[in-house]
Amino acid sequence: MKFIIKLFPEITIKSQSVRLRFIKILTGNIRNVLKNYDETLAVVRHWDHIEVRAKDENQRPAIRDALTRIPGIHHILEVEDVPFTSLHDIFEKTLPLWREALEGKTFC
């Protein structure tokens, strides 16, 4: 299970040194809040987002709920990593998940 966390805009407009310090503080806060849910949790910092990876799928709703209560987070995106070999392979894997939502819609 993987979450991609987008930073609050106030953090993204800071200078490089301040931004890195705020991101480090935010990752520490995320680790502190989520350590009760999963000890094997991995929190990885990037320049424009933070990745949270956990092994226990049963904790998904609890982790998502806990992330919504941490200041400094703008968006929480739940991601499913799926290997693919071609663009058509992506279509084949995506169609069953989104068929009902896309039915009757057109693309330009």
UniProtKB/TrEMBL annotation:
Keyword line: RNA-binding
Matching SUPFAM superfamilies: THUMP domain-like
Gene3D superfamilies associated with the record: THUMP domain-like
Residue ranges of every copy of the THUMP domain listed in the record: 61-108
Organism of origin: Klebsiella variicola
Keyword Lipid metabolism belongs to the record: no
Matches recorded under InterPro entries: ThiI_fer, THUMP_dom, tRNA_sulfurtransferase_ThiI
A Gene Ontology term for the protein's cellular component: cytosol
Gene Ontology molecular function, alphabetical: RNA binding
Listed name of the protein: tRNA 4-thiouridine(8) synthase ThiI
PROSITE patterns: THUMP (PS51165)
A GO biological-process term: thiazole biosynthetic process
